[in-house]
């Protein structure tokens, strides 16, 4: 038996139009508690539920962002025996209609942790969900660019820039700027870029927009490169 579905990175309106074109057996969407509260993941999920279409989940930990939380976010997690990644997986796996959860793993411990999350019968309480929503709000204020590091932008960059690395540096810069209230005090966070050849630094971006066209998040990457160049 064959099953016909697709991986989706567009808007809720676009998703509705695609569902009207054919009968689908599944749809894969980016779904995690950050995108649920700060993006359109919840709308996309609810649209699929309306059509009774099984949901395949990618980026349940948002490219690892939800696995390494800042201390103020970690303090909000009640059960310290469950890792931040475990909470993220439990959020997704608690949603009705989620049939597959795709999670990247690079070591045995992560595989064991993911298996434990799948085996768990722990249903998230309203209070726990409220805490995850609060964490998403804190992260939204801290993280200027919610890049997942998928690298879809890199292959098509005519300048061959390591865009996820540069955006990570940009996030570091913005985080320090917010912490100190003075961008000048945060510039040192960008010093690691000086180790790059000039043609690999943000100033090498020609603003062609190819990166944004291939970005699942639709990030306006050239604008971030321009700001870093100005700094």
Summarize the structure.
The protein is an alpha/beta fold. Helix content is 46%, strand content 7%. The protein has helices spanning 12-21, 33-38, 41-50, 71-74, 84-93, 108-119, 126-142, 163-180, 183-186, 210-214, 221-230, and strands at 5-7, 26-30, 55-58, 98-101.
Description:
It is globular, with a radius of gyration of 19 Å. The model has no long low-confidence stretch (mean pLDDT 88). Strand 1, helix 1 (12-21) and strand 2 form a beta-alpha-beta unit. It has eleven helices and four strands. It has 231 residues and is α/β, with parallel strands linked by helices. The protein has a four-stranded parallel β-sheet, with helices on one face.
Mean pLDDT: 88
Radius of gyration equals 19 Å
Query: Main β-sheet: number of strands, strand sense, barrel status?
Result: 4 strands, parallel
Total strands: 4
Give, in spatial order, the strands making up the sheet with the most strands: 1-2-3-4
CATH class descriptor name of the largest domain:
Alpha Beta
The CATH H-level homologous superfamily of the largest domain: NADP-dependent oxidoreductase domain
Low-confidence stretches: none
